[in-house]
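Why should sequence recovery work at all? Because a backbone constrains its sequence more than one might expect. Tight turns favour small or flexible residues, buried strands favour hydrophobic ones, and helices have their own preferences. The token representation captures these environments compactly. In the example below, the structure is given first.
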């Protein structure tokens, strides 16, 4: 009987880590919210695990490894340091999956919102500035993509 209680306690502790929340995608100490950027993705929770726009990786680093993905909800919110980031999204629709690789230059203290819509057999995926609703970034490899990772965000002056 004691084993049952111990097992139940361990299960509750493990599952409490499954609650969705922002994933920090930078090393070192946690930054003040005014010095980090947030990227969120849209999710339609009316049907579980359908119509999800999941953030798969940032700058080549997976947001979840295989073991974590068995216990955690799909990653839909991340915290990054300001600058240029390459993001890989997976959009799970009712009848298929679409993958997109986008880039975005983030500013400190700002939030960005990734959106997707089904379009024929595929989808359209883009990122907007959450405050203004203006589209930012673009498709990985596009001609307007900055080549340097150390790019100032809009409105910042470089010394």
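From this structural description, the recovered sequence reads:
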């Amino acid at each position: 009987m004691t084993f049952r209680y111990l097992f139940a306690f361990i299960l509750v502790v493990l599952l409490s880590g499954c609650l969705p929340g922002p994933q920090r995608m930078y090393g070192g100490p946690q930054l003040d919210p005014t010095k980090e950027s947030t990227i969120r993705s849209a999710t339609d929770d009316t049907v579980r695990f359908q119509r999800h726009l999941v953030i798969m990786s940032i700058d080549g680093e997976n947001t979840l490894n295989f073991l974590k993905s068995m216990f955690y909800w799909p990653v839909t919110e991340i915290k990054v340091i300001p600058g240029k980031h390459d993001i890989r999204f997976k959009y799970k629709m009712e009848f298929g999956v679409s993958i997109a690789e986008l880039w975005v230059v983030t500013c400190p203290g700002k939030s960005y919102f990734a959106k997707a819509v089904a379009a024929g057999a595929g989808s359209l995926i883009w990122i907007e500035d959450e405050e203004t609703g203006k589209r930012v970034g673009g498709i990985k490899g596009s001609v307007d993509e900055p080549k340097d990772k150390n790019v100032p965000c809009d409105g910042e002056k470089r010394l």
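A few observations help interpret the result. The chain has a mean pLDDT of 77.
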